[in-house]
Amino acid sequence: MGARCLALLLLHGTLLLLLLLPQLPLAGAATRYYTFNVKLQNVTRLCNTRAIPTVNGKFPGPKIVTREGDCVVVKVVNNIKDNITIHWHGVRQMRTGWSDGPAYVTQCPIQTGQSYVYNFTINGQRGTLFWHAHVSWLRSTLYGPIIILPKAGLPLPFTEPHKDVPIIFGEWFNADPEAIVAQALQTGGGPNVSDAYTINGLPGPLYNCSSKDTFRLKVQPGKMYLLRLINAALNDELFFSVANHTLTVVDVDASYVKPFDTDVVLITPGQTTNVLLRAKPTAEAAGATHLMMARPYATGRPGTYDNTTVAAVLEYAPPGHIKSLPLLRPSLPALNDTAFAAGFAAKLRSLACPDYPSNVPRRVDKPFFFAVGLGTTPCPGSNNQTCQGPTNTTKFTASINNVSFDMPTTALLQAHYTGQSAGVYTADFPASPLEPFNYTGTPPNNTNVSNGTRVVVLPYNASVEVVLQDTSILGAESHPLHLHGFDFFVVGQGTGNYDPSKHPAEFNLVDPVQRNTVGVPAGGWVAIRFFADNPGVWFMHCHLEVHTTWGLKMAWVVNDGPLPEQKLMPPPSDLPMC
Q1: CATH pick for 158-349 out of 3.40.190.100, 3.40.50.1370, 3.20.20.70, 2.60.40.420
Q2: What's the pLDDT tens digit per position in 51-64?
Q3: TM spans, by residue (predicted)?
Q4: If you classify domain 366-566 with CATH, what class do you get?
């Protein structure tokens, strides 16, 4: 009897030890090791050479290729003067919040000459995500794809492609983006916009001095290609289309969707979209050069976005002499085509089948109503101080429920884990606006915001609903909201003000799309739901970097559950210090 008890005790201790160790890959899975050396590299675009932060000297950075269930281990070494963190955008990070990456939220930054090992497992995701820096505006050049293949032996729920190709949208600045944002914060005005958009780091033939810097996708007639679209741009939502080719959407944010055909894809910063493209048969393909083009979907004030167009070339093998062939350009929607944006979003539905169920919360434990938008704050200094914001006495800012988030100087997750949150954050983020108003109508006279490092605390596994309401303060504008640590279900969206007595009856609780980033419609609202099943501290922010800089961000603190496997893992020994 004693031997049996001892055996059970040893078994229990072993199981507990396994639960406390860094996440291990599932049976049959692999561990993928990478080293990211962050260093400056001279890169020339638009005939302008700049020393830019890169990973391993590559721009865009290297791709991570993994499978669902694999463990990914990345050692990041900082060889530049700026502090660095890397965020693995969209990765669930179940119980591994220490590896999520946003500076001063889940970790202190990696300082010059230091390193940190990110260690996480890919759980229940397959498709495309991406990684990027998560300090200031350094993600303008520090980004790259994460390609998640299905578990070995599992088929894709759509036609197997001949080849898959990452298509990463970015923005190029001739000036240093860090200097641009510093100047904007000093003056209180909007930052200077980018000088070009890029596709896989290249501006393409529509920009000056860039015909040689053009991405070319070579395809074989009749073959199927999977384009992994990633919007890594800092501040712009984009329309994308390929001349004379139909795209079939099959996956967004590493979640499968019911396939649908479209000529144009709308993709916000922070979103990924996998599309199938079938190359034309030989006879149709030989006689033309096809452009792939992207330009902004812009709902904000004129002058606040880069109003240019980026192009790449789709060419058939064997390549002909491009100049001798007719050039076909795709037709893209108008810059402010909100109707297209709403219609495209409405087509996105999850598979909701036995193999890929839609586990949307049916009940709501914790309802929230977040008014998101721009606002103002008085110019600093004396009463006669002027700045370059909406008026000469105010600066631009942004908020959720009139709270513009102040970043702490130590990591929120560490303060939560050690129980030393006093002086770091307060758990009193408002669940709804303290002073309701006509959100999409005439703005209130007082547009000033409050400031604070305020969070929402959630019990483990609570079902959460957040209605995100755009406001017309300083103009209605679309806001791509990104939630770290979770996928959520987009259960409803609409124009105007959200009506709690009417709109919930129209929610889709059957097959809503599952995402990590959603566009809050300009002059409208969107409703999301998720289970708070991931203990830790999770950032939620607008993925337009200028709005994040201005304070359109907050954090969720999810408490541990009662069981060992429902608790945040201990911090790694090499966690950076502030």
Answers
A1: 2.60.40.420
A2: 999 999 999 999 99
A3: none
A4: mainly beta
